[in-house]
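Please check this one:

***
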Amino acid sequence: MALSGIELLDDAHRLDSFDCGKPALDAWLAGFARTNQARGFTRVLIVHDEDTVVGYYGLAPGVIQPNSAPRAIRTGLRPDPTLLIGQLAVDHRHAEQGVGSGPIKDALHRCVAGADIVGGRAVEVRAIDAEAERYWQNSGFIPARDNPSVLMRSIQDVSLWLADKGH
């Protein structure tokens, strides 16, 4: 197995055999990833094995409304800008092999770098299920006040965590 580094999805990458065990994430990759990226909605970053995608995440700008934002994130009465990690999945054949940790670190680094360039108050994730909610909470993310599947962590906190961990 010779996995690539993290790259932007392009037309050479094969998506047809991707199966993470979560049909919504498989369907998003197959049906929307290229279109969303081409239209400028999302950047899709992937890890591949000989051009077959084995892991991916989507990155997009977002906002969190003040009534949804946890106190640690909220800055006032206006929506706060976020950097959204909208999808994150690893093919089940590559699970438990560390494939997911690289994209997560890469996504967090890109969020911090993006916030330095254009601003942003927090990294936002949208967990697909209770298992993902627990994962993100264990990673220091705080659930939105009105939706436990939307979780956030301040850019400052993410930046400090990355520096502390030597990432």
In short: The chain has a mean pLDDT of 90.
